[in-house]
């Protein structure tokens, strides 16, 4: 056999498209041509593979070797193909039986000694290998992650020799048995740790129940960050599919091994974060904060301080749940279905309306500060809440739903109702859904119309009031929206005082 084909996987965004490595040996002057890898990666990869093969005690065939990585238009950087390339050379030269290779896919970077180094983005490749019905060979350090794709046959190795011995039948490898090392939940911060702030806690509960975005406005020191960080603990647990999506993102984003899985992320980027850091990008597109917050919470503190251009980019993922990053020749899609919690001060100094009377901001300054946020962005936030400073007093509060476990139970029941009724959370209701599931009786409709008129609310804003009212009704297990739900929902609209 002088031709061998080995399967591997590239990494594009959070996808792992198939790559085949064809190794062909021909008579002629000894040479090694590597086609399909970028120029810079070719030499390093050749050197590693040659050394690894020789140092493992195999022959490096003294013939004309052509290696072709296909398809040609995928980014194929990094050493993740080393193992597949080395195996191709060994199979094409008859040192490993080539017919054994069809049922497996290989990932791994080789050290000069022939030992394996872990690579990034193993989980997406594992899910794709499982879908393709093949086993996956990975470096031992990646094995736990590969096993998150349950049912996948994982072969974990530390050295090229182990794989050669496996394929030649000398020492067959047993499939790796997952230790469950990655399945470890860190407790979410608890709502019970936040003193007072009943209205804000209530808003958090409503946000969690209907997947509504939320904006806190209030002076410094009112616990806005503390409150926002409690939202993940109120949300329903991730299901298996969602958990794998989240884990796959973190698998391609970081060199660090996965930990605390399956868990809803909470991301809190600083307002000085660059566009690519926030929404993703770069020459090899990397996921940004909005993708790292997928299926979890993105908290933007001091919202008006963020670059306005960056904030405008958020509008697309807030609608579609994904971000498309255009590159010179193609596009990369990253999932970005996050729940937004934002916080802002009421004025540049933060103390507008505070009883201390510290604020010296002029109306002009206040106007300019608020104008930094565009209407279309604010329009995508269903719940606006003014947070005041609590009077310093010892409080004991046996309020229902004021710890995270109780709150999460209420949220889960309300979500269940929404999924059963309309297949999605209330925040994602479209016009048809509003018509079918948020119908009001005539009296209540007139009442709401009058209220919207009086408050100067647009039709869009009125729709947001209805969605929030629907969530409030679901929290009380009510079939229909009542006047009390509408009245509370109206309180979550921004007034002139934000
Ligand atoms: Zn001020």
Kindly report the average pLDDT value.
90
Please work out how many helical segments DSSP would assign.
Answer: 20
Structural class: alpha/beta
* Bound ligands: zinc ion
Main sheet: strands, sense, barrel: 5 strands, parallel
Beta percentage is: 5-15%
Strand order of the largest sheet: 11-12-15-10-16
Number of strands: 16
Overall 3D shape = elongated
Q: Which ranges are low-confidence, i.e. pLDDT below 50, for 5 or more consecutive residues?
A: none
Radius of gyration, in Å, reads 28 Å
**N-to-C CA distance:** 74 Å
Query: Share of helix among residues?
Result: 25-40%
Explain what the structure shows.
This protein has 498 residues and is α/β, with parallel strands linked by helices. The chain is built from 20 helices and 16 strands. It has helices at 39-55, 82-92, 122-132, 143-146, 160-167, 198-210, 224-228, 231-234, 240-253, 275-279, 289-292, 308-313, 315-320, 363-371, 375-378, 404-422, 431-437, 442-455, 459-475, 483-491, and strands at residues 3-9, 18-26, 31-35, 64-70, 104-106, 109-110, 116-117, 135-139, 154-157, 214-217, 266-267, 297-300, 322-326, 331-335, 339-344, 383-386. The structure holds zinc ion. Zinc ion (ZN) is lined by residues 347-349, 351-352, 359, 361.
């Amino acid at each position: 056999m002088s031709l061998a084909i080995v399967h591997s996987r590239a990494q594009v965004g959070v996808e792992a498209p198939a790559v085949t490595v064809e190794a062909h040996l021909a008579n002629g002057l000894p040479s090694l041509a590597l086609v399909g890898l970028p120029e810079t990666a070719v030499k390093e990869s050749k050197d590693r593979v040659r050394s690894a093969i020789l140092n493992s005690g195999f022959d490096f065939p003294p013939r004309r070797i052509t290696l072709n990585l296909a398809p040609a238009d995928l980014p194929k950087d990094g050493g993740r193909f080393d193992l597949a390339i080395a195996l191709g050379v060994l199979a094409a030269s008859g040192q490993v039986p080539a017919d054994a290779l069809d049922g497996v896919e290989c990932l791994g970077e080789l050290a000069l000694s022939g030992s394996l180094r872990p690579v990034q983005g193993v989980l997406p490749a594992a899910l794709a290998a499982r879908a393709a019905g093949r086993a996956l060979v990975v470096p031992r350090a990646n094995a736990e992650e590969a096993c998150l794709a349950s049912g996948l046959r994982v072969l974990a190795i530390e050295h090229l020799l182990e794989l050669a011995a496996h394929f030649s039948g000398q020492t067959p490898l047993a499939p790796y048995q997952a230790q469950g090392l990655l399945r470890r939940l860190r407790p979410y911060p608890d709502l019970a740790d936040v003193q007072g702030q009943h209205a804000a806690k209530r808003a958090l509960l409503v946000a969690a129940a209907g997947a509504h975005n939320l904006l806190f406005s209030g002076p410094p020191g009112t616990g806005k960050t503390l409150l926002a960080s409690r939202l993940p603990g109120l949300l329903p647990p991730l299901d298996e599919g969602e958990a794998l999506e989240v884990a796959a993102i973190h698998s391609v984003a970081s060199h660090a091994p996965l930990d605390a899985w399956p868990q809803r992320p909470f991301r809190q980027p600083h307002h000085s974060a660059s566009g690519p850091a926030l929404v993703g990008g770069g020459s090899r597109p990397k996921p940004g904060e909005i993708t790292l917050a997928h299926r979890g919470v993105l908290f933007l503190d001091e919202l008006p301080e963020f670059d306005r251009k960056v904030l405008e980019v958020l509008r697309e993922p807030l609608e579609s749940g994904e971000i498309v990053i255009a590159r010179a020749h193609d596009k990369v899609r990253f999932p970005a279905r996050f729940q937004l919690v934002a916080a802002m001060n009421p004025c540049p100094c933060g103390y507008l309306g505070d009883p201390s009377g510290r604020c010296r901001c002029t109306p002009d300054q206040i106007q300019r500060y608020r104008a930094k946020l565009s209407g279309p962005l604010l329009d995508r936030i269903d719940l606006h809440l003014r947070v005041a400073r609590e009077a310093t007093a010892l409080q004991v509060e046996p309020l229902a739903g004021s710890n995270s476990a109780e709150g999460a139970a209420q949220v889960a029941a309300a979500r269940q109702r929404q999924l059963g009724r309309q297949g999605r959370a209330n925040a994602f209701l479209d016009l048809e859904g509003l018509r079918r599931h948020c119908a009001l009786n005539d009296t209540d409709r007139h009442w709401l119309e009058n209220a919207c008129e009086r408050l100067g609310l647009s039709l869009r804003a009125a729709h947001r009031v209805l969605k929030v009212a629907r969530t409030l009704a679901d929290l009380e297990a009510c079939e229909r929206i009542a006047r009390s739900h509408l009245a509370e929902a109206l309180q979550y609209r921004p007034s002139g005082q934000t």
